[in-house]
């Protein structure tokens, strides 16, 4: 099973490195799905509830996944594995609204093309919405999505009361070319494959 997982990861890396799998700039919804599916982490911004920072933006890095590695296996839903012990999760308990930024800068693609992470050609996506706990069937999907990409998570301390959550997307902005941000609706986003 581990060999199959490594093969899928290697195939995804090769697709990114080759650059042939990158959607065209006019395919903003597809680009958003592509970037999320090929990224393993993102910057989640909350409104802080912490003393001295209350009401200020606070960004933190979180591992995420929208499905197992490999082409066409992503759901488009960013899943996270969280604990109430984490400072950003404490913010979310007061206000579940957040933004999530993912960038191809974390993949070999931008380095291969010598794109600075701030260069629009090194695509990044900004999602706005809220974080919600998942249960039932959604919990099984989240577990499969996260543990297939982040197997270490399965061994994290049980006494930290980890739970599965999803980013409920309400707004999407895509920066993948010159000329400014493109707006993609959640309906457009979920109707395409990465």
From TrEMBL:
Protein's UniProt keywords contain Glycoprotein: yes
UniProt subcellular location: Secreted
Domain of life, per lineage: Eukaryota
Keywords per UniProt: Glycoprotein, Secreted, Signal
Domain CREG-like beta-barrel: 23-191
Keyword Glycoprotein: yes
Any one of the GO CC terms: extracellular space
InterPro entries (UniProt xref): CREG, CREG_beta-barrel, Split_barrel_FMN-bd
Signal sequence annotation: 1-23
One Pfam family linked to the record: CREG_beta-barrel
Family: Belongs to the CREG family.
Protein name: CREG1 protein
Protein encoded by which gene: Creg1
